[in-house]
UniProtKB/TrEMBL annotation:
<dbReference type="InterPro" id="IPR000182">
    <property type="entry name" value="GNAT_dom"/>
</dbReference>
<feature type="domain" description="N-acetyltransferase">
    <location>
        <begin position="14"/>
        <end position="168"/>
    </location>
</feature>
<protein>
    <submittedName>
        <fullName>GNAT family N-acetyltransferase</fullName>
    </submittedName>
</protein>
<dbReference type="InterPro" id="IPR051531">
    <property type="entry name" value="N-acetyltransferase"/>
</dbReference>
<dbReference type="InterPro" id="IPR016181">
    <property type="entry name" value="Acyl_CoA_acyltransferase"/>
</dbReference>
<dbReference type="GO" id="GO:0016747">
    <property type="term" value="F:acyltransferase activity, transferring groups other than amino-acyl groups"/>
</dbReference>
<dbReference type="Pfam" id="PF13302">
    <property type="entry name" value="Acetyltransf_3"/>
</dbReference>
Length: 170
């Protein structure tokens, strides 16, 4: 399990055991980890992705860390959201696609901005060269999160705005 720490949040990658427990015994997941129960988590998309991720881990076609992550608030350890990382290889570049969701009651506190920053640094340490992300055109808050993290717009369609960030050594 990977753990990334910032000033507002910390993030944990989901391993096979955690994914299984979330699907089969959600309450036990919280109790065993002494995490305050969050009724609005995980999201439907997160729950739908877990079985696919578990299967990929079991057959060895997926590496831990390149999948779902939990975003937790530092002071209370409360779960405030989730992140998804999908590793891809395109044109000889190692890259991943990033998605995130912050529970509505925790939005506008800088949690997403810091979580994206943390995972961007983690990506650099793992030789990732490019990160892509997209958000709905009407989701201005998410656009700001990406822009604050030095992503730039690469395309727009009727529904989404597409972003990327090229990682370079400092």
């Amino acid at each position: 399990m990977y753990i990334l720490k910032g000033s507002k949040v910390f993030m944990e990658s989901i391993d096979l055991q955690s994914a299984s427990q979330l699907l089969l015994e959600k309450e036990a997941f919280f109790v065993q980890r002494q995490i305050p129960i969050e009724l609005n988590w995980p999201s439907v998309a997160f729950q739908a992705f877990l079985p696919i991720y578990m299967e990929q881990l079991e057959i060895g076609s997926h590496l831990e860390g390149y999948g779902p992550w939990i975003i937790r608030k530092h002071k209370t350890e409360q779960i405030v959201g989730e992140m998804y990382i999908k590793k891809v290889r395109e044109n000889g570049w190692d890259e991943f696609d990033l998605g995130y969701h912050i529970i509505e009651t925790y939005r506008n506190n800088g949690y997403a901005t810091e979580a994206v920053s943390l995972v961007t640094e983690w990506a650099f340490q793992h030789q990732i060269k490019k990160i892509t992300a997209y958000c709905e055109r009407l989701n201005v808050a998410s656009q700001h999160v990406l822009i604050k993290n030095n992503f730039y717009e690469i395309g727009v369609d009727e529904e989404f705005i597409y972003f990327e960030k090229l990682l370079e050594k400092k």
